[in-house]
Design goal:
The protein has 54 residues and is an all-alpha fold. It has helices at 5-8, 12-32, 35-42, 46-52. Helix 2 (12-32) packs antiparallel against helix 3 (35-42). The protein starts with a helix and ends with a helix.
Length: 54
Amino acid sequence: MSAPAAEIKKGRKFDQVLEGARRVFMRDGFEGASVDEIAREAQVSKATLYSYFP
């Protein structure tokens, strides 16, 4: 059985993704940001990033 979407989005990894994205967007802007750079900055895999933001 799967957890509700609100529960999936809780936790350390999700917070890492949000913080990494915030840093990349602040530094490079939305147009300059890439999924690769956000994943690298957040120290998560692209698969993890896409699991939160399909």
